[in-house]
Specification:
Layout (H helix, E strand, L loop, with lengths): L3 E7 L5 H17 L5 E7 L12 E8 L2 E8 L8 H19 L6 H5 L12
Parallel strand pairs: 1-2
Antiparallel strand pairs: 2-3, 3-4
Helix pairs in contact: 1-2
Length: 124
């Protein structure tokens, strides 16, 4: 399987440092789950209003076999949030979703508590 990453900037300044930052974050996700099919990152600045300031939207879509994971973050300049922290938060949210997809480990204590098993309870 190919691991592909597409990065799109819409109405936003394209910088090489931001592209490298996103690629490093994607490499970290790829280490967690090598079965990633595709990842697309869209960074856009919609029409700006005087009351909200320069808000930038970061949308990250990650495709793994059987699922599509989506993370959307918006920068909040009045709270001191910049574009890099929005991208980091987006990838962190996807990392959490990937961790939740992992199968749970079945330990001996959990195995004995499974409802479909009628195992005798041993004392000791």
């Amino acid at each position: 399987m190919r691991n592909t990453l597409t990065i799109s900037f819409k109405d936003t300044k394209h910088t090489a440092h931001m592209v490298q930052f996103i690629e490093n974050k994607f490499k970290r996700l790829k280490k967690m789950n090598p079965k990633i099919i595709q990842c697309s990152v869209v960074i856009r600045t919609p029409h700006q209003k005087l009351t909200t300031g320069n808000q930038t939207q970061v949308s990250i879509t990650l495709q793994v076999p059987g699922k599509e994971l989506i993370s959307k973050k918006t920068t909040a300049p009045h709270e001191g949030m910049d574009l890099y922290s929005a991208v980091s938060d987006g990838f962190f949210a996807l990392e959490s979703q990937l961790k939740a997809m992992r199968p749970k480990r079945v330990t001996f204590q959990n195995f004995r508590k499974l409802p479909y098993l009628d195992l005798p309870q041993f004392s000791g």
